[in-house]
Amino acid sequence: MTTHLAYGNTFSDSKPHYMILDGLRGVAALLVVLYHVFECFDWSPAPHGYLAVDFFFVLSGFVIGYAYDDRWKPAAGTNRPRLTLGGFFRRRLIRLHPMVVAGAVIGAVCFLLQGSVRWDGSHVRIILVMVAMLYGMFMVPLWPGARADVRGNGEMFPLNGPNWSLFFEYIGNIFYALLLRRLPTRWLAAVAAVMGCLLTHIALRDGYLGVGWSMVDGGFWSGSVRMLFPYTIGMLLAREFRPGKVRHAFWLCSLVIVGVGCLPLLWGEMSPLINGLYDAICVVFVFPLLVWVGASELNMDTNTTRVSAFLGNLSYPLYAVHYPLMYLFYAYIGFHGDLVPISKLADVWPVAIALPIVCILLGWLCFHYYDLPLRRWLSKHWQ
């Protein structure tokens, strides 16, 4: 097992963790950015990029189970557990919430820069923008028809859409601390099996798994299932994990993740079955296998270690703050809900190329000058 002492190891008593999984999270985050850049066009090089979120959930379940399962037990010679509910939730808030706040603030700034207008062109009062920012900062999702839905698109978090997945990550943390960690392995496996069946049903019903970002049409329940299956299967992996011996696992897994995201959408007469089945197979089988293979990396070389460390540090800040810049890009090219012909790219390609680079730079700056220093300070004064 290769360990790494960087963003995930802010606490002095943290267990070493798998560096390669950090790197794979970074690869998935870059795939999400590519998917979002082209989301407004009628053609995309990464049409299945939304599945990277499901990979995040598998990783989260594995990391949470690995890092915390044995900490709920009493320390040797005492009756007091090494980790309490309050301690667990403080650690998760310190890990996740600084970038949640940053994403909401950056989202509000970008919304004001683009003129404070909804998708339909109507003006939004600044007080509603501030309310939407507060909802985002405190991770409170908006319901359908809420006045603070400043974009009018039904998003849970209209200033920073991807926060929906962090909202469900919080729910997953709560479920883990209150229930899932207490379940015997066979019961946890039963929960994962039920969630897997429900997730497959949603994928086949809708033709894809890009659900959960809105409360509309049962989005909360679909998003909950989309989180709970990969989360519980990741916890099962952490409990039952037996590492193999896989050389070049980082590069092999990265290639598969990119391949999964870049496969064209499988539309046609059988679209709900074929594309939905593809999504379900990726989440139910491929992604857990990738986590197992990634955690079985054998003898990482220096260059791979450096790449994994960089991508691991970048992954969460990049994911948490990139989407407000996408809103600016969509406004720039005139996207208001109807897909833009890919031929339009000929007119805006310099911006489309620069956008991921700017996102990476913003994520890197957030990590080094905001997220990491703040988490270190909070872990010192709030533990």
Report what the structure shows.
The chain has twelve helices and two strands. The chain has a two-stranded antiparallel sheet with strand order 1-2. The protein has helices at 19-37, 52-68, 85-113, 126-137, 163-178, 185-206, 219-240, 249-262, 271-294, 302-321, 323-333, 345-381, and strands at 3-4, 17-18. It is globular. Helix 2 packs parallel to helix 9, helix 7 (219-240) packs parallel to helix 9 and helix 11 packs antiparallel against helix 12. Mean pLDDT is 92; it is low at 1-13. The longest helix has 37 residues, at 345-381. It is mainly α and 383 residues long.
Oligomer: single chain
Number of H/I helices: 12
Order of strands in the sheet with most strands: 1-2
Distance between the termini: 28 Å
Could you report the average pLDDT, rounded to the nearest whole number? Answer: 92
Instruction: Encode the helix/strand succession as letters.
Output: EEHHHHHHHHHHHH
Shape: globular
The chain-level structural class is mainly alpha
Helix content: 55-70%
Biggest sheet record: 2 strands, antiparallel
Q: Report the portion of residues in β strands.
A: under 5%
List how many beta strands DSSP finds. Answer: 2
Instruction: Note poorly predicted spans.
Output: 1-13
